Structure formats: C-alpha cells, structure tokens
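Quick start: what a row looks like.
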Amino acid sequence: MKNDLRQLGKYQFLALHSGAKKRILAKLVRRVYLNASDSDAVEHYFRLSSYENGFPTLPTEPEGLSHLYHSLMESVKPDEETPQLLPQIRRLDHKEKQTPFLPYSIYLDQIRSAYNLGSIIRTLEAFRLGTLHLSPYCPSKEHKEIAKTALGAQHHIQIFENARLEDLPRPWIALETGNNAHNYASFPFPQSGGTLIFGNEEFGISNSILSQADFLVEIPLQGMKNSLNVANAFSIIASRVRGSF
C-alpha cells in the first residue's frame, strides 16, 4: 500500500470512486491509530485529503482517530466484500484500567524472537496476569521489534530481565507436552498465584527446569504438528487463567 500511494497523484485520486477514496483514507487513519509514529501514513493522509474538499483534518488523539475511521468506513456503501462488523467492534484503548494484575509471575525460558516476546507482552497486559521475568538470552525489553508488536503494552507491566527462576514463587507450572501433563482446560490454576513457565520456540522448556516443576500443563493438539507458536500458546493459557478468577 505504501508504494502504491506514492504513485497516486492528485488527478488519479480524484478519478477514484468516492468509496475507494474513503477506504484509502480509512486505512491510513487505522495505521496512525495503531502506530502514532507512522509518519508515512500521516503524510499520505494530508496529501490525499488536500486534493478534495470535505475530508476532515487528521486528529491527534486516539478517540478522534477511532471516530474518523468509523465515520469513513460507515459512509461507504456496503458491498459483499465489506464485513459488517464495525458496529460491534470496540477499538479504543482504556485511559484508566482498574482491573488489578493477577498474582502470577511469567517466566520465559530463552525465548529468542523479539516478535514473540512483544506479542506475549501485549497479551499479558491485556489479561492482566502479573509480572514478566525474562531469562538470560531473551531479547531486551528495549528491542525495537518488541515495540512493534507490544504496541505500548510494555509500559504498563513490570518486566524483569536476567531473572532467576529460583527467585519466583511456587508452584512452578511448566507449559509443556508430556505423558504426565495436565489438560490446561481442566487444570485448577491456583487462585494464590505461582509461576507460569514457557519455553524456547525450538527446544521448549529446558530439562533442568522441567525436572523441578511442580506441574506440567499442556494444550492438547489434534494435528500432525505437536506444537504451537509460543505466543499463540501463551494467549490460550492467559485466557484460561484469567477466566478461572
């Protein structure tokens, strides 16, 4: 989309159908809403909207961006390819969040991908699970790729780097497949908290940690592949833990 818009001049834009113009501008608004530092999206919006009277100035606040996005999309005549989901979608972040964090420590054992780590951070904050503890060899919380996927959630949780599992509370609940593993859907996650342990993308949780874990919990899988992306698995467990409180 970025490259295409650089080639979209005034007369090409004016020649587009009204609905096509609004969809383009709505996509740019959404990009700015998701990433306020997306200068390309801001530049394209101001340039394209200036070609024709009637398009509003790009807001700077999330509420204004959300309202503009919805007004642009809702003014487009629906067609078979336009999902009718906008009225049900809530996009605004909360200005204040009163829900307390759960008493859990999350320990990541040598998670190498900054994108996975950023996704986990975002999910952890969304479900308000607790604190995040990174083992050695995990990316730093300042890594630029974490910021891309965490979308600011890293500023709302406690993150401890070079953490020692020995310093974290029991029970230690290792999320890993095994013959003696409990099904996550029926496992009674303690109301008093504990430590949830997630392992490396390729090798899983290290054997030394597994030998010390109090419980082994798994997500039963039915397919040929007996593993999930660690960020996806974290989302499933996070939803289950929060739902048990």
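That is the whole record. The domain at 104-243 is CATH 3.40.1280.10 (Alpha/beta knot). The chain has nine helices and seven strands.
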